[in-house]
Amino acid sequence: MALSLPTRQRRGVASDLPSPSSSRSEPDEKEDKRKRSEEGQEHKAIGWFLPLFALGMLRYMSATSNIIHDCDEVFNYWEPLHFLLYNTGFQTWEYSSQYALRSYLYINFHELVGLPASWLFPDDKVRVFYAVRFFLGLVSVIADATLVVALSRKYGKRLASYALAMLCLTSGCFFASTSFLPSSFAMYAMSLSSGLFLLGKPASAVAVAAVGVILGWPFSILAFLPITIYSLARRFKQTFLAGAVTSLVLLVLSVLVDYYYYKRWTSSVFNLLQYNVLGGGESHLYGIEGPIFYLRNGFNNFNFCFILGLLFPAFLPIARRKYAPDLLIVVSPLYIWLGFMSLQPHKEERFLYPIYPLVCVAASAVIESFPDLFRDKYNPRDNSWPVVIAKIVRPVVLGLILSASHARTFSLINGYGAPLEAYKILEHYDDVGTGSTLCVGSEWHRFPSSFFVPEYISEVRWIDDGFRGLLPLPFNSTLGGTAAAPPHFNNKNKASDEQFLKDIEACTFLVELQLNRPYPTRGSDLSTWEPIAALPYLDREFSPSMYRSFFIPYLWQEKNVFGMYKLLKRVSK
Q: For the chain, percent helix, then strand, then coil, each to nearest 5?
C-alpha cells in the first residue's frame, strides 16, 4: 500500500505566475539583449563630428604637404588628367590604344573636380592640382569616418578612438590618403565597405567593394572577398543584387568610356587583368624585390602599429567573444593581401595601400585587448595589478606609435619635398618668353606633372643621362590624342629613339639633382647655367637608414647627407 504524504497547498506567488518574458522564446530574449546592447553601444559611441573634424584637418595637411611618392602617379594619372583639361601632357605605353590598359573612367571621376577648378583658376594650374588633392582628401575623410563610427557603435569608444588616431597620424595613411592612385581609391573603398559591413549594411558594403574594384583597382578584388562572401552568406538575395547591378553598370560604363577615348571597343579592366594574370605579365621588367620587402616597408610606414596589427590573430583566442566573427572578417584581408603580394616578384609600396586602414583597426583591437591578457576570464571586473598596468600601457603604446609616425612623416616631407617646390619657381621666370624648353635628365622620375609647368614653356623634354627604359612621350593630337597608338611605344620597357632631346642647346631651363659625387653634372658649368632655385634633398645612399627614415631632433640634420635639387636657367649670351 502506497503511503500518501500530506502536502500543503500554497497560494501562488508572483515568481510562480507566468510573466511576459517567460512566455517568450529563448531566441527572442537573446535578440532583445543584443538590440539593447547595440543601443547602449550606440548611445556611448563616438558621433560623426569628431572623426570628420580630426580626419578633415589631417587630410587637409596631407593634401597641402604630401610629396609624390611614385612616378606612376604622375605619368599614369596626373598627366592624362592634364591632357583632358589642357590638351597637353605625357602619355605612357599603357595608354596607347594598342594596349589600352588604363581606364579613362577613373580619370573622368577626378575630372569632375579638375574641370570646374580649371574654369575657376584659368591661369593657375597648380591650384587645380591641389583642388583635386583636396577632393581625394575629402573622399578619404568620408570613408574613414564611416569606419570609425562603425567601430565605435559596435566595439566602443576606446577601440574607435585608437583607430581614429592611427588613421589620422600614421605615415602610411597620411600619405596614401591624398595620392592620385587606383590603390588609394581601393583603400577608400576598403574603409567605407568595412564600415558599412560593421553597421549591418552588407548589400551597401558589397556595392562599395564593387566600385573599389572596377572603378579603382581590379586586383583589389582579393582583398574584398572576405566581406563579400560573408555578406552573401548573411543576406544573399539583397547583397547579390546590389553587387551584381553595381558591377554590371560600372563595367558597361567603363567599356563605353574606353570606346570614347580609345576609339575602339575594348575593356581596360579586362586588358589589365589579361596582361598581368592571364598573359603572365612582365612586371618584373620594372624591378623585383625580396620576400620581406613589404614587412620592412610596413614597419617604415606604421612602425609598431604594423607589428601589433600582425599580432591580431594571436590575440583572437583571448578576445574571441568581442571580435569574432565580424572584426575578424574585416581585418582578414590584411593577412590575405600581405601574403599574396609578398609572393609577387614585382613589389611597390603603393600595392599595400588597400589594406592600410585595416592595419590601424587590427592594431587598435590588440592595444584595446592588452588587459585581457591578464584578466580572470571568470571575473570581467578583475582589477588586479597586472590588469591595471596593462591599462596604463595602452596609451603609452599609442603615444609611441603616433610619435614615431610623426617622425617618419616629417622626415619624408622635409627630406624629399624639393621637387614640388623647385618647379613652383618656374612661374616667376616668364620673362624668357614663350616657346621655352624645360629639360630633365635623370630626374625624370621625380617630375611632379605638367600642372607645375607654366604656359610659357612650350615643351618638357628628357635628356639622355644613361636611362635605358621606355619613357613617357607627349600625347600626339595629330595621331589621334587618346586614340593614338604611337609606334615608339612597346610593352617590353625598351627605350625609344624619340624619347631624348638630341640638341641640349635647345634647353632654356634644366632640372637636376646635384649630389656629392666624383663626377660633374651639367649644371655645374656656371658659364652656361645660372641656378635660380637650390633646395636641400636627402641623399638616401649616404644617409644612415634609421636617421633618414625617422626624424630625430638635431640628429636628423647632423647624421644625414644632403644634395641640392636645382632649377637652372641658361645664361644669356
A: 60, 5, 30
